[in-house]
Amino acid sequence: MAYLTFKDINKIYPNGFHAVHNFNLEVEKGEFIVFVGPSGCGKSTTLRMVAGLENISSGEFLINGQRVNEKGPREREIAMVFQSYALYPHMSVYDNLAFGRTLQGVDEDVIEQKVMKTAKILGLTEYLDRKPRALSGGQRQRVAVGRAIIRKVGVFLMDEPLSNLDAKQRVTMRSEITQIHRQTGATTIYVTHDQTEAMTMADRIVVMKEGYVQQVGTPYDLYFNPVNVFVAGFIGEPPMNFIKGTVNNGCLKVGKSDVKLSMIVSEKTVAEHEGKEVFLGFRPEHAILTKGSAPADSICFTGTVELTELLGDNTNVYIDIDGINAILKIDPHDTPSLDEEIGFAIPKGSAYLFDGETEDRLTV
């Protein structure tokens, strides 16, 4: 039996706004699940329904097989880490960590033992006497995480906990939260709009758009097997390139190239889409500069370089393919010149085709 079960969960506000549509998911005990999507997609609303901070309009939410729709936040044995840290400014780090257990009437010796253990895990031992104002953003967030850990609950909820940190702190805290999860074994639901956080931290990712679940899967599944244009474009940095066109005699005209679509999907699928619009997709890092000769079984293009971005380990090359814009991610030693015309190829196994109307991926 799944530890957390979402059955056709809907959230409809009094003004009629339907924020979450038929949300279904089963979460195993100890999993790290990330809800990801753009602002307003319903991910934080879903998290708040899990916490009991929002009422569920319809559907069932079960914890360990027990329906908890009508239970309040305190009855659900859930700890939540907020974006704003929510620390008590007049209390020391020690007292912030101990506060929840103190309210529960736990013996002081037991509290001290748990605080010291938690502080050691989080690298906060030397800061226990400090007030939150004397800490960095990353240290404050560790205190907030520690306050959740020390409660020893079954479920951790994290709502964009790293959004107030700078880039370097975010990288550090990502790894720290992942390590803490492994040490505690707690079931965790983490909300973010940052697909890099989702890809690096999650066991499974739930991609949402406008209140609907688009795809649920491992980071690998979402990256290499996206089910539609939205998921393919949302996951990956730089995002997947899309070229829209009409199928004509089994081919797609892209600049000077006629792409034979049966290299990507079956001839039957190509025939079914004759005269219809499709999206051809490829990821920037799959581009191979041809320099006169193209690899076998590849799709070839020619474009003009408009901009290059040297990033150290790679160069992003922005090109124009007769009015179609695309980004290539290539070896920095092969960086072309501005306005240079270059040829590049995409291995046929790295190209994707999507229906132009439904935007669903065509796989056969």
SSE map:
Elements: E1 4-12, E2 18-27, E3 32-36, H1 43-51, E4 58-63, E5 66-67, E6 78-81, H2 93-103, H3 108-122, H4 137-149, E7 155-159, H5 167-184, E8 187-192, H6 195-201, E9 204-209, E10 212-217, H7 219-224, H8 229-234, E11 241-246, E12 251-254, E13 257-260, H9 267-272, E14 277-282, E15 288-289, E16 298-310, E17 315-321, E18 324-330, E19 341-347, E20 351-355, E21 361-362
Parallel strand pairs: 3-8, 3-9, 6-7, 7-8
Antiparallel strand pairs: 1-2, 1-4, 4-5, 9-10, 11-14, 12-13, 14-20, 15-19, 16-17, 16-19, 17-18, 20-21
What does this structure look like?
The model has no long low-confidence stretch (mean pLDDT 91). With 364 residues, the chain is α+β, with helices and mostly antiparallel strands. The chain folds into 2 domains: 4-234, 3-Layer(aba) Sandwich (Rossmann fold), CATH 3.40.50.300; 241-362, OB fold (Dihydrolipoamide Acetyltransferase, E2P), CATH 2.40.50. Helix 2 (93-103) runs parallel beside helix 4 (137-149) and helix 4 packs parallel to helix 5. The chain contains 9 helices and 21 strands.
